[in-house]
Amino acid sequence: MVGLAAVLASREADPLPSPPLEVIEPDVDVQAGAGDPFTYNEKRRPGLERRAARGLAHVIYAKSPGGVIESARRTARYRPLVERAAKPAGLDPDVIEAIVLLESAGRPDAAADPQLEGAVGLTQILASTGQGLLAMEVDTARSRALTARINRSRARGRTGRARRFEAARRRVDERFDPREALEATARYLTFARGELGRDDLAVVSYHMGVGNLSSAIEDFGAGPEVSYARLFFQSTPNSHARAWRRLQGLGDDSVTYYWRVQAAREIMAQYRSDPEALARKSELHTAKNSAEEVLHPPGETEVYDDPEELEQAYRDSELRPFPDAPAQTGLRRARQMGELAGRLEQPRRLYRGLRPEAYALALYLARLTRDAGGGTSPLTVTSTVRDDEYQGLLRRGNPEATQNYSLHTTGWSFDILRRYSGGKQAQALQYALDRLEALDLIAWVREPAAIHVTVSSDARALERLLVERGD
């Protein structure tokens, strides 16, 4: 079953082949030089689940039709029907409601394709699934004919006639009937829970399918009732690699679907409890093409206004120099970094630094990329910290430079050149970006020449990597 969720998950790819607010403390002593400070274990599972929901929420805010507030309002209208469908099966109504928000944004007439063979309705049910597994009335030919009549009636302003055709369509294609669609979704989740043994896996299978998920679990090799968090976080290119390859090979939103359902659940909860806070969060999510302003909101984050403030930040260790030591760090410093400094009569070194947490994250990203099969060639970092005077020069001369609040002026952002040693390094970097986003440690976006990365302050847990490296 795919619908709005698949649209929300779409993201432009590089032209190379590619397949809780608290800090999570490391399991191992990173100062001793071993291990991943964000490794998975069952004790840490709730925190990692919260991180994944937050880290992967942005696309819901960015692409919900009419905005997330309007989408939540539409979805909330169906709460009585959601509860009625969930109760007999012992399902969580919040989860079913979240599926509605994610799949259709609360639009009962949402359709993925004009032939109506694909996903349709509040919960985006495929025609084949509705007819077979879910025992629904689904006559796609009659449904298409009625849809054409509905559209013509609406175009001519005949709303009463359109409503009559809509009622007829609900009878011949129950996917358009909110009550029938919600009850069918409850039946699917009940079936999947019986097959897979867990509620979280049942939700994952709503998009991935029971067969695909069962195969991934078998590849993982940890028993039939492994949690989805463990399957997700422990399947990597160099650990449980068969499971990772199978999940990545699906080529859609299936791998992250569960986390987006959890994000949608949080959105609906906040819509009811604190709609003003949700509206503010929506503004931050939609201000840029990534969630960077959610990580560091304007007005709440220190901005370096001029070179003097940068100098003081280095003296106070708020910023640390970014070295050109690719053999040690896996990161090459581009020669042009800070190239406009001379126009401000300042040394380039001022514009070659990051917050210590951001620098540690950059080291971690390079290590993830290397360990995922990206080879030993360094990634090239083209830009780090700026002050607002430097940013002003960019605004006047570079049409790609933001005209508003730039996270580069906070020391939390850096850019990676989109030029790789080959397809394997591009794939490995993509893995690293996706993993760090799922850990809610970064927000990132592709720009024409670079990957723009903004680092969460939660990356302070990674500063121990600086001790490991002797930096």
Summarize the structure.
This protein is mainly alpha-helical and 471 residues long. The protein has helices at 4-9, 45-55, 58-63, 68-76, 79-86, 93-104, 127-131, 140-155, 159-172, 178-196, 199-208, 210-220, 228-234, 241-249, 257-273, 275-286, 292-295, 307-315, 326-329, 356-374, 388-397, 423-438, 464-469, and strands at 320-321, 331-333, 353-354, 379-383, 413-417, 442-446, 450-455. Residues 6-34 have low confidence and may be disordered.
Describe the protein's topology.
Blueprint: H1 4-9, H2 45-55, H3 58-63, H4 68-76, H5 79-86, H6 93-104, H7 127-131, H8 140-155, H9 159-172, H10 178-196, H11 199-208, H12 210-220, H13 228-234, H14 241-249, H15 257-273, H16 275-286, H17 292-295, H18 307-315, E1 320-321, H19 326-329, E2 331-333, E3 353-354, H20 356-374, E4 379-383, H21 388-397, E5 413-417, H22 423-438, E6 442-446, E7 450-455, H23 464-469
Parallel strand pairs: 2-4
Antiparallel strand pairs: 1-3, 4-5, 5-7, 6-7
